[in-house]
């Protein structure tokens, strides 16, 4: 789920620091498929621009995918909710939802979130147009889609809908069941942060705890490396050495490098670990490093002093991401995030997601709870200023109001007490579980907390390397779906 820059009208390479930051927000990667499939084609649904204003007749076309291969007449309808990035048709051929579709004879859809991927409701992403980007509008999109699909595909109007979502869409799945219980019969909410919070200090606390599952030595090495970084940044020779070690795109220059640049640099260095931890050992269709991979380097004293080992890990990730250098310049990131035009290709939704964090959720992953490990240079004020610098002066104050409003509307962590037919799923390694439901006293809205797994792990296609507790969790989720489908009433 974090900030990234969008590739806009003319294709250019966007800021690498922003891309890494956004990767921690972007919920689902591309699933690793077991075979080659003919993927579902893009389809389009005409949608209202402003669901809150019936006098606004503007319409736009929203992308969706459909797979009816496993549908049995009278069967349920499964809907995968799109999130803060392009929808991907691969999720309509393999993964947790498809496995359950085979079992229960379900029709399957995936609806792309407005303003992401190819779903462009407005001419551009200017602030005046982003006002139509919100979780409430997204939920209404889902509601109108659910109302329309049975007619379009000749299914019975009383078909039972089960929604699935991971990360931000995991929150949307639970909120959909809460706000539209007459339309949604059940919801699988994976890794969903239900508590909006501006200062998300717990994120890096969990990162540290997750790294400690390898060894205390890994934590000690990071701490020692960061101390060396602090010292080296204080004098010119050290700055030059750091720039070479970490392959900075721009040298540290006392006359040009700002306080915001240094904060962004430290945040980029912290991202080195956050990205690995959040997606540790999931089943994405890309080669990713694990906690063991990076910690094995960090504790290996034969590789040099701690800062050298830290740099080696950082450069490993640069290479994996096909980046030539580590870009930490704050002004460059802000300039690119201000670009309001749509991309030619499907790019990560950095500007859009940043707008949502600045107006609805916060979710700012600050360093101040672990200053000895990740520095204290990117507190919550760093992100509030970022909102202002990207969108304008009034956005310095929108976060607090938006967070309070979101928690008031959706119930935050009290939601399990007033809801049914929802299962909340989290992994202990995933830092986002700190804002989610990991325990529930309501048997109608149970929580499954999977020890040793990361972000949205249950949603991916199964692998022989899966932990037994992950396999068991998938079975539990499937059983809950079966129980919901047997119920004749919605609530």
TrEMBL record:
SUPFAM superfamilies attached to this UniProt entry:
alpha/beta-Hydrolases
Q: Which residues form the signal peptide?
A: 1-18
* The keyword Glycoprotein belongs to this UniProt entry's keyword annotation: yes
Keyword Hydrolase: yes or no? yes
Q: Which Gene3D superfamilies match?
A: alpha/beta hydrolase, Serine carboxypeptidase S28, SKS domain
Keywords assigned by UniProt, alphabetized = Glycoprotein, Hydrolase, Protease, Signal
Against InterPro entries, the record matches this protein to: AB_hydrolase_fold, Peptidase_S28, Ser_carbopepase_S28_SKS
A GO molecular function term, named singly, is:
peptidase activity
GO terms under biological process: proteolysis
Task: Please give one Pfam family short name.
Answer: Peptidase_S28
Q: Which family does it belong to?
A: Belongs to the peptidase S28 family.
What PANTHER family is this protein classified in? PROTEASE S28 PRO-X CARBOXYPEPTIDASE-RELATED, SERINE PROTEASE 16
Q: What is this protein called?
A: Serine protease K12H4.7
């Amino acid at each position: 789920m974090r900030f990234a820059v969008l590739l806009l009208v003319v294709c250019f390479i966007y800021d690498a620091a922003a891309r890494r930051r956004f990767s921690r927000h972007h919920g689902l990667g591309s699933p690793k498929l077991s075979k080659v499939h003919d993927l579902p084609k893009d389809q389009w649904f005409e949608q209202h621009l402003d669901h809150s204003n019936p006098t606004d007749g503007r319409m736009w076309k929203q992308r969706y995918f459909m797979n009816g291969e496993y549908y049995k007449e009278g069967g349920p309808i499964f809907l995968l909710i799109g999130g803060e990035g392009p929808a991907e048709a691969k999720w309509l051929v393999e993964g947790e939802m498809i496995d359950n579709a085979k079992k229960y004879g379900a029709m399957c859809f995936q609806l792309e979130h407005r303003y992401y991927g190819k779903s462009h409701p407005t001419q551009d992403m200017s602030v005046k147009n982003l006002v139509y980007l919100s979780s409430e509008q997204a939920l209404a999109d889902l509601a109108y889609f659910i109302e329309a699909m049975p007619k379009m595909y000749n299914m019975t109007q009383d078909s039972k809908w089960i929604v699935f979502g991971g990360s931000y869409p995991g929150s949307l799945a639970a909120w959909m069941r809460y706000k539209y219980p007459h339309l949604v019969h059940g919801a699988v909410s994976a890794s969903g942060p239900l508590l909006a919070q501006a200062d998300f200090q717990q994120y890096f606390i969990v990162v540290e705890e997750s790294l400690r599952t390898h060894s205390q030595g890994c934590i000690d090495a990071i701490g020692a490396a960061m101390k060396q970084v602090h010292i080296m940044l204080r004098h010119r020779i050290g700055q030059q050495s750091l720039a070479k070690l970490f392959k900075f795109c721009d040298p540290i220059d006392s006359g040009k490098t700002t306080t915001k640049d240094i904060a962004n640099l430290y945040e980029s260095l912290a991202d080195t670990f956050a990205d690995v931890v959040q997606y540790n050992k999931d089943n994405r269709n890309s080669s990713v490093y694990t906690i063991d991979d990076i910690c094995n380097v960090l504790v290996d004293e034969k590789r040099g002093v701690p800062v050298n080992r830290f740099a080696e890990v950082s450069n490993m990730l640069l290479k994996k991401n096909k980046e030539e250098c580590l870009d930490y310049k704050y002004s460059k990131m802000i300039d690119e995030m201000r670009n309001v035009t749509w991309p030619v290709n499907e790019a990560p939704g950095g500007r859009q997601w940043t707008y949502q964090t600045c107006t609805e959720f916060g979710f700012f992953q600050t360093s101040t709870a672990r200053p000895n490990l990740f520095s204290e240079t990117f507190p919550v004020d760093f992100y509030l200023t970022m909102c202002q610098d990207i969108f304008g002066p009034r956005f310095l104050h929108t976060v607090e109001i938006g967070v309070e409003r979101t928690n008031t509307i959706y119930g935050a962590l009290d939601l399990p007490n007033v809801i049914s037919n929802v299962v909340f799923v989290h992994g202990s390694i995933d830092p986002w579980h700190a804002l989610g439901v990991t325990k529930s006293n309501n048997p109608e809205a149970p929580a499954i907390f999977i020890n040793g797994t990361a972000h949205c792990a249950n949603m991916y296609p199964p692998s022989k390397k899966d932990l037994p507790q992950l396999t068991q969790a998938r079975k539990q989720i499937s059983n809950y779906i079966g129980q919901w489908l047997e119920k004749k009433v919605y609530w």
